[in-house]
Structure formats: structure tokens, C-alpha cells
């Protein structure tokens, strides 16, 4: 296996953060070096975010792992991801939900959407669909979703995402501009919303109709 020692060391460091074994197994199996520009391949298994172009980043592995654990992902779930980036986060989730699960990942930057599709196909993930569009409005075509994972920071929780979250579902998303916090949102079986502040984070901004109001378009 390529980068086997590096993958082993990454999983060892994440285990010290008390990440679940299920998520650690997914992190181990995903070839992160395929999801970064070739210039960063040698650093792919260092636990830090990396530049993927277009003023975007691939999240640090510990953040991907923590969000997966917060989402309580299970096999067969229907997942919405906001912010495909390079496709890495979707690949990790795809490992956990398995071939009976489906992931719909929205990306606003066309070149990144193309990059993510190419890398996901190359890595063998057939249950992830990357859609070019405004992630702040979600993707009602495949709603409701068991889980929603937002990988860009919103000014507040987008209403369309709450509406598309299934009763009994879970969403994680960062909120804030200068100062950001990661929130765990749960929707009860009767539709009641609860929201818990997990920790401070740093993400790129969520741009769009229900995000920050300066839509910068493709760069």
C-alpha cells in the first residue's frame, strides 16, 4: 500500500484524540495523497490542512475524523455534504456508510468539482455524486438526509439545510466569520432542533444565497 507508514502514523496520532475505531479504519483506507495537488502529496498524511487551490483547503484529518464521529455515521445512510473541496471528506464518509449509502456533495467552484469527481472515481468511490451549485440552499432533489456535513463556515444555520435534514437526523457545521465555532445540530423525531457548540474552528466561508452575501464565483 502506498504511504503505508505515513497512514499508520496518522491513525496512531488520531487514536490519541479518542477518535472511534470505525472512523480510524476509514481514514486508514482512504488514499489522502490522491486528494491533494501532487506538489503536496508528500505531506498528505500530516495532520494539517493543505491548500487545494482556488482559495480552498482540504481539512486536517483530525477535523474530518471528529466531524465523522459527531455525525454518528452508519452504513446505508443518505448524506448531504456542503463543500466537496477535493473529495477527501466525502471519501472518508463513503467508507463508513458503505456501498448501500449515498453521498451528495455540493461544490460551488467548477474546477474543484471536476477535480473531486476525478479523484473519487480514481479511488474507486461510486456512491458519491458531486454536484456543481450553491451549497447554502442544499440539494432538495435527494432530501431528506440522515446526515448533513457542512465544510465551510456559515453566518448562521441555513434554513434550507434544516428543512432538508430528516427527523432524527444530525448536522455538523461551523458558524462565524472572524471567530468560528463548530456546532452539532440534532433534529428530533418530532422536528425539534437542538444545537450544541462543540469547539472553535477555522474554515473557509460558506458563500451563497444562505451563506455570506458576497458570492465570489469561480476563481
Q: How would a textbook summarize the main sheet?
A: 7 strands, mixed
Instruction: Specify the overall morphology.
Output: globular
Spatial strand sequence of the major β-sheet: 5-4-3-6-7-8-9
Helix residue percentage: 25-40%
| Average predicted local confidence, pLDDT | 94
Number of domains: 1
Indicate the structural class: alpha/beta
Low-confidence stretches: 215-219
Instruction: Say how many strands there are.
Output: 9
Q: Specify the number of helices.
A: 6
Instruction: Give the CATH superfamily.
Output: Vaccinia Virus protein VP39
The CATH first-level class comes to Alpha Beta
Distance between the termini: 35 Å
The CATH topology corresponds to Rossmann fold
Describe the structure.
This protein is an alpha/beta fold. It has one domain: 3-Layer(aba) Sandwich (Rossmann fold), CATH 3.40.50. The protein is about 30% helix and about 25% strand. It has a 7-stranded mixed sheet with strand order 5-4-3-6-7-8-9. A two-stranded antiparallel sheet has the order 1-2. Helix 5 (about 110-125) links the parallel strand 4 (about 100-105) and strand 5. The protein is globular, with a radius of gyration of 16 Å. The chain starts with a helix and ends in an 18-residue tail after the last strand.
What is the fold's blueprint, element by element?
Blueprint: H1 4-15, H2 21-29, E1 50-53, E2 56-58, H3 61-71, E3 78-82, H4 88-97, E4 102-107, H5 110-123, E5 128-132, E6 145-150, H6 159-164, E7 165-175, E8 180-187, E9 193-201
Helix pairs in contact: 1-2, 2-4
Tags for this model:
219 residues; Rossmann fold; 6 helices; two-stranded antiparallel ribbon; disordered C terminus
Amino acid at each position: 500500500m502506498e504511504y503505508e507508514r505515513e497512514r499508520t502514523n496518522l491513525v496512531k496520532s488520531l487514536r490519541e484524540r479518542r477518535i472511534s475505531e470505525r472512523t480510524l479504519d476509514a481514514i486508514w483506507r482512504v488514499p489522502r495523497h490522491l486528494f491533494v495537488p501532487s506538489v503536496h502529496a508528500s505531506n498528505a498524511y500530516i495532520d494539517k490542512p493543505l491548500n487545494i487551490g482556488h482559495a480552498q483547503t482540504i481539512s486536517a484529518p483530525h477535523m474530518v475524523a471528529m466531524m465523522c464521529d459527531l455525525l454518528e455515521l452508519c452504513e446505508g445512510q443518505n448524506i448531504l455534504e456542503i463543500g466537496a473541496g477535493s473529495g477527501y471528506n466525502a471519501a472518508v464518509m463513503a467508507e463508513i456508510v458503505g456501498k448501500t449509502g449515498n453521498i451528495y456533495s455540493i461544490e460551488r467552484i467548477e474546477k474543484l468539482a471536476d477535480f473531486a469527481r476525478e479523484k473519487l472515481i480514481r479511488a474507486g468511490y461510486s456512491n458519491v455524486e458531486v454536484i456543481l451549485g450553491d451549497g447554502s440552499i442544499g440539494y432538495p432533489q435527494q432530501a431528506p438526509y440522515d446526515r448533513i456535513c457542512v465544510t465551510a463556515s456559515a453566518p448562521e444555520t441555513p434554513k434550507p439545510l434544516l428543512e432538508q435534514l430528516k427527523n432524527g437526523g444530525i448536522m455538523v457545521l461551523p458558524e462565524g466569520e472572524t471567530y468560528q465555532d463548530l456546532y452539532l445540530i440534532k433534529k428530533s423525531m418530532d422536528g425539534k432542533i437542538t444545537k450544541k457548540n462543540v469547539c472553535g474552528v477555522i474554515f473557509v466561508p460558506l458563500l451563497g444565497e444562505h451563506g455570506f452575501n458576497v458570492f465570489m464565483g469561480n476563481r
